[in-house]
Amino acid sequence: MILFPAIDIVGGKAVRLYKGDYNQMTVYSDHPEEIALDFKNCGATHIHIVDLEGARDGGTPNLDTVLAIKKQSGLFCEIGGGIRNMEVVDRYLSAGIDRVILGTAAIEDEEFLKKAVLKYGERIAVGADIREGFIAVKGWLERSQVTVDEFFENMQKLGVKTIICTDINRDGVMAGTNLDLYRTMSRRYNVDITASGGVSTMDDIRALKDMDMYGAIIGKAYYTGAIDLKEAVEAVK
Q: What is the tally of structural domains in the chain?
């Protein structure tokens, strides 16, 4: 299992939201690239980055910060947030980012998703942000009418290889991750699933590893010290 310690960005700073609420934001660092270097020093090989302003407004408002994280760390970097057209996909991937994650666009613009997968293959991932059994869009601010199963079935059909699956109600609240959800999805669909949201203890990490989950994202638990990243990296080897 691959661990993806996470950096969420607003205004060039590393932050965390509570349940995706932009009004409940904690700033952890003015220099996200320094956090990326700590990830590397702890043995991490991958980083999960989210441009929260991009997720809310579209575009690449924190592109310079994202590229600084990649350059300083040299690690595999995937980025999500505001990737809604091929221009943005091309911009990130041509600049050296390893994988982009489509969220809202995967729901609202299937033709764009098809083009992206056709052009870049496994460098395209999709985010399944789940609120009460449905997929949320627009930076988690709106709930679509697409159910989780409808979404996964369609992504598999379109050739999407990797899905980042987030239970929004577990995100940032340190209440444990939704093991039942990930177990069900991984058995039902032939895609690589990265578990996100509420991964807050070593027990969560071990349980996900025992499920043969492709990946797990560590967010708030790293910043609060609830999970020792070096210990977590060793545990999944």
A: 1
The reply to whether 8 belongs to the active site is yes
Domain coverage including residue 49: 2-236
CATH number for the domain including 119?
3.20.20.70
pLDDT, tens digit, for every residue of 99-153? 999 987 888 899 999 999 999 999 999 998 888 788 887 655 567 788 999 999 9
| Given 51, 129, 167, 204, the catalytic residue | 129
What number of other Cβ atoms are within 10 A of residue 146's Cβ? Answer: 17
Cα gap 137→113, rounded to integer Å: 15
Distance of CA 211 to the CA centre of its chain: 19
- Of 8, 167, 171, 204, which is the active-site residue? 8
Residue 192 is among the residues annotated as catalytic for this protein:
no
pTM of the predicted structure, to 2 decimals? 0.92
